[in-house]
Amino acid sequence: MYSEWASLSTQISANSCGAQCFSVLNKFPASAGREVVISVVKQLGTNLGITQNAEPSHLVKDEEVKWCMDVICFGLSLPLQEHETIKDCVNVYCEWLTALHPQPRISVPKPICEDANLYARQIINHFHNLFVPRQGESSDTIKRQAVLCHRVLRTLQQTAQISQQMDRQTWDTLLLFLLAINEILLAPPTVKDDVGDQLCERVISVLFEVWLLACVRCFPSPSLWKTLQESCAMWRHRVALVDQWNRVNLALTARLLEFSYGPDFTQLKIADEDSQLIPAGMSNDCVAQTWYRFLRMIGNPTALCSPHLISKSSHFVQWALTHEKGAETHQHPCLQMLPQIFLNAIKGISSQVDAFLGLSKTALISLTRSSANAAAPTTPTSGPPSSSSINSLPSIGTEVRTTLSVARPKCNSILHLFGEWLFEAAHIGGDTWLQNRKRQACEASKRPSSMIMENRKGSISLSQPNSLNDPSSLPPTLTIDKYESGRAEAIGTLCKIFCAKKTGEEILPVYLARFYMALQQCLKITESKECDETLASILLHSADLFRLDLDGINVLLPGYIAALEIVLPDKDLKLKTQATAFNRTDLRRSAINILLSIMVLPLHYHNLPIRNLTSDSNEKPLTFIQLKARLMNILMNALQVETDAQNTHMLLGGLLLCVQDAVTFEECELSGNEHLSGQTGQNHEDNLLSSACSERSASLVSGTVSFGGQTPAMSSRDTASAHEYPSLTISDDISVDFTHDFESIASYDNAHALFVRATYLVCHRLISSWKTDLNVSLAALELLSGLARLHIRETDSLVKIVEPSQNLTIISTDALECKRAVKWICDYICYQCSRPPPAHSKDLHSTIVAAFQCTAAWLMQHPYLLQDKDCLQTVLEVVELGISGTKSQSKNGDLPKFKDEKELKPASMRVRDAAENLLTIILEQVGYFPSECGPESISSLLNELALIKHCTHPTGDGSVGVCNTEQAISKFKYFVTENSTILALLEEPLGNDQDPQPTITLLIRGPFGRHAWTMQLRHLPRSKSGIKYHAVNPGRPIPLNDITQRPECEQKNFPEGVDKVQPCVADYSIPTIEQIREQYGASIIGDLEAMLENQSIHEKLAWAESDNSMDSLSHAQECIPPAVCHEFHAARLFLSHFGFLNFEIRNPQNPNESLGAPPQRPLIVLDTTASAFAADLENLDKLSARTHDTVYVFYVKAGQTSASQIIGNMAEDQTYDSHFANMLQTLGWPVQVADHSGWTGFVHNSWSLKNTTESTDRNQSNVSNELSYNGAQHVLYWADVSAEIAFVVPNAWNMRYNSDIDSCSLSSNISDQSTASNVWMRGEDTGPLKSKPRNLSLELDTGSRNKEPIPPTRRKGTVSKPVLLAQAPTKIFLVWLESFEDYLNFPVEDLLAYARTGEELHSMQMPKAADCHVIFVHSLQSGLLRVKLLGPSGRMSFATPLVDGMVLSRRIVGNLVRQTALNISRRRRLDNDNYQPPHVRRRLKVQDIVQKYKMDLTEAELLAHLFHRSI
User: Fold this and answer.
1) Beta strands 973-977 and 1164-1166: pairing type?
2) 1447 close to 789: Cβ distance less than 8 angstroms
3) How far apart, in whole angstroms, are the C-alpha atoms of residue 1314 and residue 1481?
4) H or E stretch including 144?
5) What is the mean pLDDT of residues 110-119?
6) Which of 938, 961, 671 lies closest to 791 in space, CA to CA?
7) Position with higher pLDDT, 994 vs 125
C-alpha cells in the first residue's frame, strides 16, 4: 500500500543511536557532567511551583535556554541511581511543554513561549534518553524509571490533545519520537519485568491514541504510515501490540458502521473508554482512511505462525549470538506467546466480521485489558463477544444463532477485506500448508546459510533456511498444533461469513473454492476420533451452510457426515486438550442443525454422484443414496445418547421427517417401478425378512437400545405380556463400536425398517429416560402419533401368525410392532399415573392426556389391534385407570374389583376426560371413521326438520305445515338422561318404512355429537316376520263332539295324614270366619254375603239371555281377525324397554354417581314450548365434538414488508411460485363453504346443515381462481376423528368481512354459538381423500364406502366453566417466502386484521402479534424447502415435527406443516388451565339446557305425558 513511499526508519535509528550526542556535557567526564546537571536542574526545579510558589523564569535569551536544555538532555541520560535529578529534569521539561498549551505556565521561559514548536521538538527528542533501558539495574530502580516514563507519556498525550498551535513538523517529531521509544523498548526480545515489559502496553496505547489524534489535526504522511507498519512488524512478539490493535480497530469499526449503514444497523457496543479513542472531530472520510490503514498495520496475521519470521530482527540475532548454548533466534522464550498472539489477532478479525454481520447485540469485551492476563499463555487477553469470558471461544456458543442484520454487506465485500488472511489462517497445519512449507524448505536448501543484510535499519540477521523450516527444530510450545485455536477461530469466522449469504446473493467462485478446500482440510478426522477445536468451530458456526443455495456445497457432505459421526453418537464426547472452551450442548445443537439440513438430501438427489475435491479420478465417487444409512445411524445413535431437552426435541422432529420422507418417497417414486410389480413374490419374502431383520436390529442396534442377550423370540414374548413392563431396557453403557458391528443388520433400504427402529427407540427412551420431561415426552408422543398415521408398504401384505398365547390368526407384517407400541404407550400411562402424589402436577397430567391421544391415533389407524385380546384388554385397562384411578385387576390372578365396589379417584379431571374420549373413540369410531357423513362431521347430518320432512303422517299428507325448526321440534318429545344426553323421540314412522310395527326415530345429542337412529319393536327377526296369511276367512275346523268318559274321584287338597300333623303358629295365621265376624261385626259380614248372592243372580240371568241370543256360541258364529293396529305409544315402549322408566331414587353415596350428575330420576322431561328452546338446541349443535384450528396462509414476494402488499399477492392477476400452489393442495381438501358441515375458519357458518341442492348450483356458477381459499366460497379443510383444521388464504375480502362483523352488533344466537365454539380444534395427519357432504337422504351413499379412515387426535382440559376464553385462540400463520430474509420484517401485527374467526370477540384478550406462531417456508434453488419457526417464548411453544432450520422435501411439506400446526394448538390447549375439551363443553351445555327447560313432573305426570301425542 506504501510501496512508492520512502520509510523513515533510518531517521528513527539515527535518533536512537545519537540521542546522547545532543548534549555538550558528553564531552566531559561523567562526574563533571553529573555535578553540572545536579546544580542547574535543582535550581530550575525550585521555580516550577512544585515545592513553593512558581516564579517567572530568569532565562530570557535563546542561548540561555539552549544551554539549560543541553544540561537537561544530559541529565535524562544519567544512571537511575540519580533518580531525583532525573525526576527534576522530567519536571522541568514537562512544565516547559505547557508552552504549547493555550495558557502556558508562568515558569516557562520567554523564548520557549515565543517559539514553542521549535523548543517542543527539541524537548521531545531529548525525552528519548529517559526511555533508553539501563543495563544491570535493579527492579526497584526500573519501576522508578517506568513511573517517570509514564509522566512523560501522559504529558505528551495531554499536550497533543489540548494544544492548538502544534504545526506539522512538531506532529511528525512527536510521532517519530513515539515510534522510536516503542522501537527501543519493544523491538528487543521480551524480558520479564524489564522496563520494556512494564511500559509495553502503555507506550503502544499512547502511540495509537496520539496517532489517531494526529489523523484529525494533521493527517500523517504516507511515509509515516509506512514507518508505523514496518515498526509494528518488529513488535509482533508483544501481546500488547495485537491487543491495542484490536482495541483501535473495533473503535474505528464502530464509527465506520454508524455512517456507512445508518442508525438502523446493529450497533457495535464497546467499552466507554474504547469509544473515546476516536477524537470527536474526525470526519467520516478520515475515519474510513484511518480504519483501513490501521487494519493493515500489523500485516498478515498468519506470519505469527512462523517464529523464524518474527525473530529475524537484529535484536533476536544478537541474542542468539550471545547465547551460551548457541540457540537459534526462533527459540527465544518470549516467542512461546506467538500462538496466543495469533489467536488474539484472529479473534480481533472475527470481532470485526461479527460487527459487519450485525452480530454485536451483546457488548464486546474490550480487547485491551490487564496485561497480567497476557502473561499466561493459556489465558487470552482479547477476543470478540463472549457470554462469560474471553476464553469461551467467542462465537462458539449461544450467539451462533443470533439474527444477522438485514443491512449487512455482501459476503464478497467482507471477503475482500478479511478473506486472504482468514483463508491462509484456516490452512495452518493442514496438508496444503505442510506441502507449501516443504516446498519452501526445498527451495531454501539450495542456498547456503548466510548472513543477510536487512533493508530495515541496515541491521543484519542470521538466516538458516534448513533449520528454520524444520519443525523438529522448533520448541514443543511452538509446534504447529499449538496454533490450532487461531486456526479454529479463522475457519469459524469463514463459516459465519458464508452462512451470512442472502437469498439470491452471488459469491465469487474463487472464494467458494478456497472455502471448500479449507473446510475439507479442517474436516479431516484423525485416527484418534477426537473432536478438536477446529472441528468444533466448524460445526458451531456452519449450522446454516447447507440451506443457503451455495453452489457446490454438497461436495463437503461426506466430510460433514464424518464430523457428525464423531460428535453426535458419543455420549461422552472425546475432546482434545484445548485452550478455548465451548459448551458441549451447544456443539451438539449446532451439529443437529446441520444434520436436519441434510437429512433429505439422499432421497432428493438419489443416485447423483458427489465429486471429491482432491481424490483421483479413478476412484468411484460416492452417491447421495449411499449416505442414507450413515445419516440414519447418526440420527438414531444421537437420539439414544442425547440428554439435553431441546436437542432431543430437534432430533425427534428430524426422525419423523426421515420416516415420513422415506414412506412418501416409496409411495411416489417406487410404486410404479417394474422391480416392484414384476417380482411380487420375491419382494414379499424380502420384506418379511427385512421386517424380521429390522425387529432384531431394533433390539440390538437401535442406538444402543437393548442389551442383555435379548433375542427375537424374547422380543416377540414382550408383545404377549399384558401386565408387565416391556422387558427390553435401555443400556446407555453400550459402546458405539457395538452398534457399528450390527450396522449391516439395520437396513435402511426401506421405510418399514426405519419405521420399526424409530418406534422401538422412541418407545424405549420414552419410558426409560424422557418420562419426567414435559416437552420431550410431548415431542415423543407427537412423533409416535405421526408414525401411527404412516402407510408403510409392508403393511399391504398379510402374514399368518401362529401364536397360541394370542387371539390372532391373520395380522399385518408390522402388527407386532404396532401392538408393541400401543402396549408401551399404555405402560407409560400406567407409570405416570402410579407416581407418588407429590409428583402429580399439571405437566404430568398433560403428558398423560397426550398419551391417551397418541393411543387413539394408533387404534384409529390400526383398528385390527382391537381384534387382539391382549391388546384390547391392555387398552381398556388403561381407560379404566384413567376414568376411575385404579384398575379392576392390578395383577394377574387377582379377583377383579367391580365398578360399583370401586371408589372413583382419577388422577385429575383432565385425565378422566381424556380416558372418556378414548373410550368413546374405541366404541364408536375405530373402524368406522369416516362415516357416511364424511370426515367433515362425526355427527349425523340429520336434525328435527330433516326427519320431519321424511316422515309420513297418519293422514297421508307427509310433512305439510312444517316449515321451520320450531314446528319440527314440536313433533318430538325431549328427555334427558344421565344429565348429559338429550333424547328427541319422534313416534311417526318415516316415509320409506311401510311395516305396521311400533316405530320410533331417535335423535341423540350427547357429549360426543348428534346421532340419529330408527327403531322398531319386532317379536321376530326380519327374516321370519315377512310370512303373512292373506285369506279373508280361513274357515272353522270341524268340531270334535266326542264326550270323554271321566272317572269320578274325590279331589283331596291335602294328604290323608294331614290331620295327624300337630298345628304350628303358621296354621293359625289365617283367621276363621267366626274370628272375622267377631272382629268386624256381623253387619259387615252380612252385607258381604248379600252382595255375593246378588252377583250370583245377575250372572245366571246373563247366561240365560246369551243362550237365547243369535250371537250365542250355539249358532256357530265365525271369528273375524281384529283390524291391524296403527297406533302405538312407541316412545313409552322404547323408554320402558330400555329401562328409563325405573323410578327408583338414585343413591348419592354410590361411588358410581359421585362424579356424575346429581341424584335425580333417570329421565327428565324438557319443555319444548319455551321460545328459546330451539335456539339453545341449535347452539348445542353448533358445539363441535372435535377441536378446531385455523391456519392462515400468506405469500410474500421478495422485499415485501407491508400487509397490503402481501394481501395483494392473492389477487387474480398476480403471479406466484407454482410450488406454493402445490403445497396448498397438500395441506387439505378444497371444500365449498356453502356445502360444508364442518369447520370453515369462521364461526358464523361452521357446523351447520346446508341445503346442498341450492348451494351447489350457486357455487358452480361462480368460479374463482386457483388459490381463492379465503373462506368466502372455498377453504382448505382437513379433519380426523378428534380434530378439524381449516387453511385460509386471506385476501382483501377478509378485511371487508371482518370490518362488517365489527361494525354490527352480534345477536345472542351468534354470541352463544361463538362462545360455544371456543373449543380450539385440531387434527393431525394427512388424509388422501376429499370428502363431499352427502345429500340429506336416508339412503346410503354407497359412493363414500371407498374412503379410508383418517387418523385421530384429541384434546383434554379442565372442566371449569368460564363464560369467556381465558386466552385468545391460537393464531398460526404459514408464510411462503421468496426471499428468506423477509421473515425479519413480516408484519404479523397488521395481518391479524385479516385473520379473524369470530371467536376473538368473546375472548378475555385479543390476539397479539407476540402470541402468534409463524411457520415460514422458503423455497431453495435445489427444490427443497427451508423452514423457519417464530413464536412466543414458553415451555410448550414449539411442537414437532417441524424444527427451526429444518430442510424439507416438497412431497412432505403439507403433511408436516399440518401436523406441526395441530401439535402447536394441542400444546397451547394443554398449557391453558381454563381450557375445556369439546365433549365437556357439550356436556355443560346440555346441563344448562336441563336447568332452563326441565319440567318437574311426578311419576304419574311423567307416565301421563308419555300417553300424550306431540302436537
Assistant:
1) antiparallel
2) no
3) 12
4) helix 139-162
5) 86
6) 671
7) 125
Alpha carbon distances (Å) from 347 to 293, 374, 492: 19, 15, 10
1428 φ, ψ to 5°? -130, 130
- What's the rounded Cα separation, in Å, for the pair 1396 and 1303? 14
List Cβ neighbours of 989 (8 Å cut-off, separation of 6 or more): 951, 952, 999
User: How far is the first Cα of the chain from the last one, in angstroms, to the nearest whole number?
Assistant: 105
Task: State pLDDT tens for residues 694-711.
Answer: 333 333 333 333 333 333
Residue whose C-alpha is closest to residue 1323's, from 1250, 1392, 1400, 1239: 1239
- 1451 in helix, strand or coil? coil
Q: What is the pLDDT of residues 1139-1197, one digit of tens each?
A: 888 766 555 555 555 444 444 567 889 988 888 899 999 999 989 999 999 999 999 99
User: Does the N-terminal peptide bond of residue 896 adopt cis geometry, omega within 30 degrees of 0?
Assistant: no
3-class secondary structure, 134? coil
The answer to whether residues 730 and 769 touch, using CB atoms and an 8 Å cutoff, is yes
Q: pLDDT tens-digit profile of 1034-1068?
A: 666 777 777 777 777 777 777 878 778 888 888 78
Contacts 24+ apart (CB under 8 A), 1427-1432: 1428/1377, 1428/1380, 1428/1383, 1430/1383, 1431/1464
Beta-carbon count within 10 A of 303 CB: 17
Label the pairing between strands 981-986 and 999-1006. antiparallel
Burial (CB < 10 A; 0-12, 13-18, 19+), residue 1419, is: buried
Which of the 8 DSSP states describes residue 216?
A: H
Question: Counting beta carbons within 10 angstroms of the beta carbon of residue 921, is it exposed (0 to 12), middle (13 to 18) or buried (19 or more)?
Answer: buried
Q: Which residues on neighbouring strands pair with residue 1003, listed in sequence order?
A: 984, 1012
The H helix count followed by the E strand count for the chain is 54, 20
The per-residue pLDDT of the chain, averaged, comes to 76
CB of 1426 within 8 A of CB of 1379?
no
1372-1377, strands of its sheet edge to edge: 1229-1232, 1274-1279, 1283-1288, 1187-1196, 1372-1377, 1413-1419, 1425-1430, 1447-1448
- Express each pLDDT in 1234-1270 by its tens digit: 888 899 988 888 888 765 444 444 444 343 455 688 8
CA distance 540 to 586: 7
Q: What is the DSSP track for 1276-1301?
A: EEEE-SSEEEEEE---HHHHHHHHHH
Pairing of strands 1274-1279, 1229-1232: antiparallel
Instruction: Name the pLDDT band for 1386 (thresholds 50, 70, 90).
Output: very high
Distance CA(824)–CA(805), nearest Å, equals 19
Task: Summarize the confidence of residues 363-390 as an average pLDDT.
Answer: 36
pLDDT at position 828: 94
β-pair type (1372-1377, 973-977):
unpaired
How long, in residues, is the chain? 1511
Q: What φ, ψ does residue 1286 adopt, rounded to 5°? A: -115, 140
Residue 306 to residue 469: CA distance in whole angstroms = 9
pTM, 2 dp:
0.80
